[in-house]
Amino acid sequence: MMQILVTGGLGFIGSHTVVELQAKGFEVVVIDDCSNADEKVLDGIEKISGKKPIFEKLDLKDRGKVEDFFHRYPDVEGVIHFAASKAVGESVEKPLLYYENNIGTLVYILKELSKKNKASFIFSSSCTVYGQADKMPITEDAPVKEAESPYGNTKQIGEEIISDTCKVTPNLNAIALRYFNPMGAHPSAEIGELPIGVPQNLVPFITRTGVGLRKELSVFGDDYPTEDGTCIRDYIYVVDLAKAHVVALERLLASKNPKNYEVFNVGTGKGSSVLEVIGSFEKVYGKKLNYRIVGRRQGDITTAYADTTKANNELGWKSIYSLDDAMESAWKWEQKIRN
């Protein structure tokens, strides 16, 4: 079995990707410092796939521990790198924490991979690199705009570091996946989105309001130049997204990549407004959600949804599940964790 390292593998997207990797027969090693995840996620992974991945609890900011890990695991052939801080608001308040955690750790991992005869690297990037794109849908050729936050800037800088490293390291093959708005949970409801503290994404706010943990949902602005006045995003089911990581990794391992650094958008190709997402939840929920329109939130862009043609044609990957499918899984997960 080929050994693959998943950093941040107990997190929302990471844990779903571990499940998909194990389903394909890979031996998975997870690194997580559990700063925004729970070790109990390992039990959920095992219940789904019948196998618990190897787990190493360590802080990737410690360069010595990163070096020691690769010394102890010389057979790692690929890395999927999720581990990063990801709260936009917090990044504005604590920029140095974000640069240390998101950039320093990336450099340490790339240094170790550069020593190997061949290594494959998948980077968890984001559509935030596009800012408010000039036209929709957004293709990979759309210009990278000045970042709206230190978090967004770490994704831009991260891509540049990988690109620069690949130019002088022919034995390193890398793909950056720029994904849009992940949501939902595994259909088994054994793993899902479990943010520690205040959620950063819309859907957990919706489901927590539905289950009664929050009195009401705040919708930030209804005066945007969209059909219903609310912001539009591309919401992708987390299982579809996890499978995209596996497909991208397999492309590199099979040497099907024409260049040793590539970028792909990962989304559904369809935009949904905040009110449409609420409407989807109300269909699943069976009654109205308590929400209130408030003022715009600083830094929110109006519209962002992907052109997925490149991923569809070159990776052979396409999202399968609908917004309602993903919402149903999110609600099932919320009810389970509250019970």
Automatic annotation (TrEMBL):
Record's catalysed reaction(s): UDP-alpha-D-glucose = UDP-alpha-D-galactose
Stored InterPro entries: NAD(P)-bd_dom, NAD(P)-bd_dom_sf, UDP_G4E
Name of the protein in its database record: UDP-glucose 4-epimerase
PANTHER family documented for this protein: UDP-GLUCOSE 4-EPIMERASE (PTHR43725:SF47)
Enzyme class: isomerase
Entry's Gene Ontology molecular function annotations: UDP-glucose 4-epimerase activity
UniProt pathway annotation: Carbohydrate metabolism; galactose metabolism
Cofactor: NAD(+)
CDD domains: UDP_G4E_1_SDR_e
Family listed: Belongs to the NAD(P)-dependent epimerase/dehydratase family.
EC number: 5.1.3.2
Positions of the NAD(P)-binding domain: 5-328
Originating species: Maribacter litopenaei
The protein's assembly and partners: Homodimer.
Gene3D superfamilies: NAD(P)-binding Rossmann-like Domain, UDP-galactose 4-epimerase, domain 1
Keywords assigned by UniProt, alphabetized: Carbohydrate metabolism, Isomerase, NAD
